[in-house]
Automatic annotation (TrEMBL):
Residues 1-172 are annotated as: Disordered. This is Class E sortase. The keyword Hydrolase applies. Residues 155-164 have a biased composition (Basic residues).
Length: 392
């Protein structure tokens, strides 16, 4: 071939004449939109032209799946002049966003990362063959930097939970035992309070009644045998008063007998003992409560105890005290601790005893006093100083 016959388009295939029906009016010689001019080379797959109305519609990306290389399909005869049918209507509802164009230099995929994570630490997005990208896995909570002090607080909470779960049965037993002991202690305190305040208030009221009865006895007519001008008392009857200003400002009213019913509200006289002012041992027993004899432990040698009868005041002086076993009965002998011995000229004893220790009764606390003075009583007169003044 000569230079004149050479052409750059010599090797290109000549265009084929169009097949099928001729194009309609207004379409002659105009290629479809978006289609490059010129016939497609043989061996390429025919790609249908895009729908002009689909430019604003979003098509959801299809998940990646293994596919074989696309196979070329032969062009359909007469398809060049046919219009592309419209796509089927899409379902109603929000349309997913169209996938961004893929490519090495264009990636608008937003990386999800927890707050506080360094941007350099996120995993890169690797595009798939279909243009989609797999989102990186969000790191666990422990990968997020914790605020200062959070680790120690979490460790404390875990420690508390761990300790709470240990020994549940034993803890319940100990808790129940502790509650029972607290309840028992409360009951004991209530009982002690009643013994100190409740019983004492009741005794003081009864003492007022007994004192009134005693005044009535002394003011009444006397028939039969008497003691210091008063009739011999029956069991439980009032017969005298006792004063001990060193431990109590008020007087006790004394009753006859030492049975529980006799001494419930007052000190009682031991029946085999002497009467006030008589030779021998005048013995009085009283309960271990503040309103009766619990405070005789405070009496000291030299303190005065005065017994008031209808006609006399007998002044006794404290000599000594001791604690004996509850079965020690020799304290009531005419001469204390000397059974069978006749009392002498100086054996005018007053013996006071009560249960010991304060909250039990297996021992006895004993106070011994001797008669040092006898004062005639004037019903209209005042009490002797020894009965009202602890300094005498």
């Amino acid at each position: 071939m000569s230079d004149q016959d050479w052409s750059p388009f010599a090797n290109e295939p000549r265009p084929r004449p169009p097949q099928g029906p001729p194009p309609g009016p207004g379409r002659a010689g105009v290629p479809p939109p978006g289609r490059p001019p010129g016939p497609a080379p043989s061996g390429q797959a025919k790609v249908p032209p895009p729908d002009p109305g689909a430019a604003g519609r979003a098509t959801p990306p299809s998940p990646p799946r293994p596919t074989s290389p696309p196979r070329a399909s032969p062009p359909e005869p007469g398809a060049a002049g046919r219009a592309t049918p419209p796509p089927p209507p899409e379902p109603a509802g929000p349309r997913p966003a169209a996938p961004p164009p893929s490519g090495p230099d264009f990636d608008e995929t937003t990386a999800l990362r927890p707050p506080g994570l360094n941007r350099a630490a996120r995993a890169p997005l690797v595009p798939e063959p279909d243009g989609t990208a797999i989102l990186p896995v969000i790191p666990a909570d422990d990968a997020v930097p914790a605020p200062p002090g959070a680790d120690s607080e979490a460790r404390k909470k875990r420690s508390v939970k761990r300790h709470r779960g240990d020994g549940g049965g034993m803890r319940g037993t100990v808790r129940g035992l502790g509650e029972a002991l607290i309840t028992l202690g409360a009951v004991v305190l209530l009982y002690a309070g009643y013994e100190v305040f409740g019983v004492s208030a009741e005794i003081n009221n009864e003492q007022q009644t007994l004192s009134t009865d005693l005044d009535s006895i002394w003011d009444g007519e006397v028939e039969g045998e008497t003691v210091d001008g008063a009739p011999i008392p029956e069991l439980g009857d009032a017969f005298a008063r006792m004063w001990a200003p060193d431990i109590r400002a008020e007087a006790w009213t004394l009753v006859e007998g030492t049975e529980p019913s006799d001494i419930e509200y007052a000190p009682g006289r031991f029946l085999d003992g002497a009467y006030p002012g008589e030779q021998g041992n005048f013995t009085l027993a009283g309960h271990n409560v503040p309103a009766i004899f619990s405070e005789i432990r405070s009496l000291e040698a030299g303190d005065k105890v005065v017994i008031e009868t209808k006609e006399f005041f007998y002044v006794y002086e404290v000599q000594e005290h001791e604690v004996v076993n509850e079965t020690e009965v020799t304290i009531t002998e005419p001469v204390p601790h000397q059974p069978g011995v006749e009392p002498g000229d100086e054996d005018y004893w007053l013996t006071l005893f009560t249960c010991h220790p304060r909250w039990d009764n297996y021992e006895r606390y004993v106070v011994y006093s001797q008669l040092v003075d006898t004062i005639e009583r004037d019903p209209e007169g005042d009490l002797p100083p020894a009965a009202i003044d602890p300094e005498v």
